[in-house]
Amino acid sequence: MNNFFTTLTFLFITYFSVSQSYESKIDSIVAISYNQNEPGISILVAKEGASIYSKSFGKANLELNTPLQKSSVFQIGSITKQFTAVSILMLAEQGKLNIEDNIGKYIPEYVEIGKDITIHNLLNHTSGIKNRTPVGDKGFISKTNMSPTELIAYFKDEPLEFKPGERFKYSNAGYIILGRIIEIVSGQPYSDFIEQHIFDKIGMKNSSCGDTKQGIPNPTKGYIIEQNDFVKSDDINLSLAYSAGAILSTTEDLLKWQNALLSNTLLKASSIKQAMTPTSLNSGKRVPYGYGFRFSKLGNSPVIAHTGSTKGFTSIALFLPKEKLYITALTNCNCKNVNNVAKQVAELFVSIPDDKITEAKHNQPERKSINVPSEILSDYTGTYEVKPNVNLTIGLDNTNQLYLLAPGQTKKVELFAETQNHFFVKIVDAEITFNKNEANNVISLTMNQSGRKIIAKKN
Fold first, then answer.
1. Is 404 exposed, middle or buried (0-12, 13-18, 19+ CB in 10 A)?
2. Model confidence over 44-69: pLDDT tens digits?
3. I need a labelling partner for 47 at 20 to 30 A (CA). Which of 112, 147, 194, 445 fits?
């Protein structure tokens, strides 16, 4: 449901909210997907290293009716990989390892199978090590505690999927090995190294690595959605995620992290550049991933980002160097598209080239609408229940134009008839079909947006 309304209403923001301030525009974008009575989101936007927007929407705990705060702590999932990669580079700068070292030098289990795998291959997911971890296996007890050596033992006998450097394939297992290398080289547990050399150094006071700190302030509870209702997600023992995804943090702490990277507080500029450079395969082909950083574009603007996901949590952190813009969004429900929200916010600060807009319009086939008598259209008007206490409205204006009004919105979406009961929206890829019973009475509508279907009963 939320994804359906997200696209529709965001376009209203684009068309009708030009005069709004950035704050109110961001409020509108976020509020489409996240309301105050559901699991929510903390989102921060920074320009040139300074926060210009920081808010939270929704509940940290539905059962306790606890609201999210700017200081709420979330599992950040695979954004953890940035911390692991930087830790490896810190040790490299100290001369304690070389990223061209074969991993068998540190991990006995990989002396043979890993004789051609370097630390570099682990950092950029070109090792060929299969992405098989306890967290990803169906039926695995998620509360199980495992040591780093036990985690490696879980996948060490898997054959390589390809020769190192031949392909790019995302591997949490590879980053688990990196965490163990950090422990062996530094002589500290991974969590202690991260907390001492990163969190404490740059003032990330509300961050921790796994469950190493008891009584985390402002914790959030994770949720999933089942049959249109929010349900507590199973707790995961973060020892299973380890150096691939065990960090908990806040949006404000992640801004400190980003600023530390750009100011060379933790690493030399040359090391940061190495981490933020796309990977070259053996063939010379480049892939859009460095050491814990993904690369893409928004319009003509480069984007450096990473996402994360654990049970009940999703996250994204993205940086636009051209605009000097940093956005991080953390959620406690993995049932909504936080990446899309962050992208929409970024688009407020990025100029999309005219040729891209023209190209997008040309790529959309033109659909022709037909006229439908007002007496038929009036049968469709009324409210439709998407879920308890959430209704959308179908109305008819004085020009015989049928429209949809999404919950909590004031802007109307015009509906155009393709047949007498099937309608489409011109500004997005969305359709609505009105359903009748044997007595020819309208009983529901089916919404279809980009392949996602939802049925709403007529009240």
1. buried
2. 999 999 999 999 999 999 999 999 99
3. 194
Q: Say if residues 110 and 117 touch (Cβ distance below 8 Å).
A: yes
Between CA 86 and CA 102 the distance in angstroms is: 18
Range list of H helices, 40-138: 80-93, 119-123
Question: Do you know the residue count of the chain?
Answer: 459
Distance CA 145, CA 236 (A): 9
CA distances, 169 to each of 1, 92, 166, 173, 303 (Å): 32, 24, 10, 11, 20
- Identify the burial level of 109 via C-beta atoms within 10 angstroms of its C-beta, where 0-12 means exposed, 13-18 middle and 19 or more buried: middle
Place of tokens 């299973």: 240
Residue 264 structure tokens: 């060379």
Can you list the residues of the chain whose pLDDT is less than 70? 1-20, 136-142, 211-216, 351-366, 408-410, 427-429, 449-452
Find where tokens 């927007």 sit. Answer: 53
The span from the CA of 407 to the CA of 195, in Å, is 44
- Cβ neighbors of 449 (< 8 A, separation 6 or more) are 3, 4, 7, 8, 428, 429, 430, 431
d(CA 434, CA 431): 10
Find where tokens 């985690």 sit.
Answer: 151
Could you tell me which residues come within 8 angstroms of residue 102 by beta carbon, excluding any fewer than 6 positions away?
114, 115, 116, 117, 118
